[in-house]
Write a structure and sequence with these properties.
Immunoglobulin-like; 755 residues; 10 helices; globular
């Protein structure tokens, strides 16, 4: 039984996306040192600091959207704020704000220029920007800073400073400030606008605002390493599509974005390809990396339009690849596509549901789904009989809405024999009978399902779907009534095979296994307890006391795990996060298909004691992965003397660059010929593990073992630091590592020939 959710990934989309990077007219907006116009750059003016030492990038002026701004320096008036950029880096910039003598407060924010242009384009499209004059553009930017429905700008007042003189010159180390993460993340080779609106009042508002000052800054970048590229693959259906990306060896990561073709072309036609490249990169807070252990689908996104799908609408998806230093490719990859058209006169997906009366229990039911060849999927939920009358009285539209809700939030199962011939757009498989089960019932839209209650009457409400994603009419099965539960005695339960075994103790884990006759057992109820954490019961408590705790007033106690029967007659779980050197007792009972409950079963086990010593030893190994979509697994196993260990893995030089200055992906991929010594590599990896394990798909681990998975044949460094203790309590740290490539693993010692 699998729950299927169709999610519309609308977060990837925006409205209104210009084009040429037109040069600004020679005679317009120049500052010769004599102009009174604030907001135009003049690094020769007094107080310009180090700005004159920073290489300028030409501002991409667009006549239709004339942003009048300084370049690295913008002088404010008596009722404005002077902006001066004092330092520019690949992924950061530093600037000073110097309020004029009458200024008591101001609002400030930083905008990626590509996003600012997009906002202005949207405003013009919707009639909020009615003039192509600079004053009109300035007014819109003012409104962005005072936007109460969005983030708006950051307000600063002279009253915020203990020393009022500190208000006269404020430095912002942008990426090390608390504002960047929620505003504009600095990335290499990208333009930004610093915007400030001042006020002569101590509290700035849209009413008290005075002059606006705008300043342009363009981040630097390292020379591009190789030719990073991202290949785009689009899998198109009738109502949805999936986009995936494959990076070449020079690409460390990728930014991607998809939307309507007309809107994207409008943006490019107005602002140019380079600006659109920057739009894609600044749309998200970070690029997507291949083989991300925390997100194996990082290079993939899907959009499902559902019943709103329109095959006549063209879509576009774009990808910008970057190298190990996040330097972007000069252009971008692009794919244009549309959804498939639904064929006319396609057969409706036919199916039916049969309740298996001998497999109806007090909290459990089984039923058969009978698929025809034209039905590929069933979506369903169990509904209380009281709701069936409501369904009967629904309009056709309301029934369709309920069918869609069940599709999106109910349970689903595929016809195993269904085959869809995409070329001929027809079903070529066959029908099937699939047995399903359920332990919960529909409560209400947006509300978590409730358990199936003993003695209550229910039905299966379901809908089928064909190969073109069309839904059948809403269907309802025959009703069934759950068994009453026998709360009097266990004498009616006859499964003599019921058995509980607990074994495999570790420091913080143990395993419990249950076996039974699946023809007789409908549900198993199991949980653990300790001497200090228990329901006030023990192995000597009566059956009635235990049953009243587990089931309460005829309902399931949510503190106890309720597991439906398995056809194998076997179930179990490894409990983790336990306390070392502690006794744990599992308690368990089972329920048959007549509402009878078994005797209580108990099993006790003690977790291992943590043996900490001066020689903390970990065993690491590289193995083929056993689960898709991964190819490889590296395991970490405690041998002895380990209190805990920190671990992580990476395939990117950028993770180590902070500890190995100048390191690039080429060095990373060929450690022996990188020019870095064994000691530099060892120390760099050690510092990386110690300082960055939480950000690299790893963590701190006290249990006996763990593992990390990845896909692909790239170079991967996996490492951990094991922590032990001397007899006097002083910590001992030992690093273990593997350099993995093409299914082979080496240590640095093996690579450098060190014994």
């Amino acid at each position: 039984m699998k729950k299927i959710l169709n999610v519309l990934l609308a977060g990837l989309l925006i409205f209104g996306l210009a084009a040429c990077d037109k040069p600004k007219p020679e005679d317009e907006g120049k500052d010769d040192g004599k102009t009174e116009n604030p907001g135009i750059d003049n690094p020769d003016k007094p107080g310009s600091g180090n700005t004159g030492d920073i290489d300028k990038s030409e501002f991409p002026f667009i006549e239709e959207y004339p942003i009048e701004c300084g370049n690295l320096y913008a002088e404010g008036s008596e009722v404005g704020v002077t902006i001066e950029v004092t330092k520019v880096e690949d992924m950061n910039f530093v600037f000073e704000l110097r309020p004029g003598p009458l200024v008591q407060s101001f609002k400030m924010d930083v905008y990626p220029l590509a996003q600012l242009y997009n906002n202005l384009l949207n405003d013009k499209t919707f009639g909020n920007l009615t003039s192509s004059e600079s004053w009109a553009v300035n007014e819109r930017i003012r409104e962005y800073l005072f936007n109460e429905s969005g983030s708006g700008g950051y307000a600063f007042s002279i009253n915020d400073f203990d020393n009022p003189d500190d208000f006269l010159q404020i430095e912002y180390d942008w990426m090390n400030s608390p504002y960047a993460a929620a505003s504009a993340i600095a990335i290499p080779d990208c333009g930004y606008i610093i915007a400030v609106v001042a006020s002569v009042e101590s509290e700035i508002s849209s009413v008290t605002q005075e002059d606006i000052t705008l300043c342009y800054v363009h981040t630097t970048s390292q020379p591009l390493i190789g030719d990073p590229q991202a290949e785009i693959a689009v899998n198109v259906g009738y109502t949805a599509f999936t986009v995936s990306h494959e990076l070449n060896s020079d690409a460390a990561a990728v930014y991607f974005f998809g939307y309507l073709q007309d809107e994207i072309d409008m943006y490019i036609d107005t602002f140019g390809d380079t600006m659109f490249r920057d739009f894609v990169r600044t749309r998200v807070t970070a690029p997507s990396y291949p083989n991300d252990p925390n997100n194996p689908e990082a290079l993939t996104y899907s959009v499902n339009y559902g019943d709103a799908a329109d095959a006549s609408v063209m879509s576009t998806t774009v990808a910008v690849a970057v190298d190990a230093n996040l330097t972007p490719q000069e252009d971008y990859s692009r794919r244009d596509f549309h959804l498939n058209e639904i064929p006319e006169d396609l057969p409706e997906p036919e199916l039916s549901v049969d309740i298996l009366e001998d497999r109806v229990a007090a909290s459990y039911v089984e039923f058969d789904v009978n698929f025809t060849a034209d039905c590929g999927t069933v979506f369903y939920n169990i509904f209380p009989a009281s709701y069936l009358e409501t369904i009967e009285g629904m309009s056709a539209k309301d029934k369709r809405d309920l069918a869609r809700y069940i599709r999106d939030y109910g349970y689903g199962c595929h016809n195993p024999n269904f085959i869809w011939d995409k070329e001929n757009e027809t079903a070529t498989g066959s029908g099937a009978v699939v047995r399903l089960d359920a332990v919960s019932a529909y409560a209400a839209r947006g509300v978590e399902n409730s358990p199936i209650y003993p003695g209550e009457t229910y039905a299966v409400v379901y809908v089928g779907r064909n190969g073109a994603m069309q839904l059948s009419d809403l269907k309802v099965s025959e009703t069934f009534t759950a068994d009453e539960r026998n709360m009097t005695s266990p004498n009616g339960f006859t499964d003599g095979t019921l058995k509980l075994v607990v074994d495999n103790p570790g420091r913080t884990q143990f395993r419990g296994t249950i076996t039974y006759d699946p023809s007789k057992v409908s549900m198993v109820y199991i949980q653990y307890m300790t001497a200090d954490n228990n329901p006030g019961l023990d192995e000597n408590s009566s059956w009635n006391e235990w049953i009243n705790f587990i089931f309460g007033a005829g309902t399931s106690n949510m503190l106890v795990n309720a597991w439906p029967t398995q056809s194998s007659g076997r179930d179990g779980l490894t409990w983790t996060g336990m306390t070392p050197d502690t006794d744990y007792t599992l308690f368990m009972c089972a329920e048959d298909f007549d509402g009878n409950i078994s005797q209580m079963h108990f099993a006790t086990i003690r977790t291992s004691e943590v043996q900490v010593g001066p020689d903390p030893t970990i065993t690491m190994a590289l193995k083929p992965a056993t689960t898709n979509p991964y190819d490889w697994t590296v395991t970490y196993t405690i041998d002895h003397d380990v209190e805990y260990f920190m671990y992580c893995r990476t395939e990117s030089a950028s993770d180590l660059a902070a500890f190995m200055p100048g390191l690039n992906q080429g060095h990373f991929n060929n450690i022996k010929e990188s020019g870095y010594s064994y000691e530099e590599w060892y120390n760099g990896i050690y510092e990386w593990v110690a300082g960055g394990f939480e950000n690299n798909g790893g963590g701190m681990h006290t249990e006996s073992d763990t593992s990390q998975d990845w896909a692909g044949d790239q170079v991967v460094i996996a490492a951990c630091i094991a922590v032990g203790r001397e007899s006097n309590g002083d910590p001992v740290y030992k690093m273990y590592h593997l350099i993995c490539k093409d299914g082979k693993a080496q240590t640095l010692e093996e690579i450098f020939g060190i014994e």
